[in-house]
Amino acid sequence: MPESAWNAPAKPVTTAQSSSVLPSPSPPPVNQAPPVFMFRIFAAVIGVIILLGWTFGALTIYAGRCVHNRIHRVFILVMAGLNCPLIPWGTLLGIATFMLLQTPVARREFGVLT
What we know:
65% helix
């Protein structure tokens, strides 16, 4: 942007105005910043997104611990499904988890009878 776009154009001063009006120490702002509450809304939305990401990561780690301990098979399958949209590693690991946990050996490990 040219410098002139940031500064307000100067008004010509007539001789009648110059004696009665004192010049202001600083010109009034041309462009005002957005209200403070807008920044707070953006910060809150970004904070919620970050907290959701941390929660998703913690649940994924917990699902890995459940695989290690051979418990909560349904929770592991749910987390594998939620990780599938995370291309490419989430998709690969999610599909591998589905394929592995459907085998008869894995079902016996988790105590599923059928």
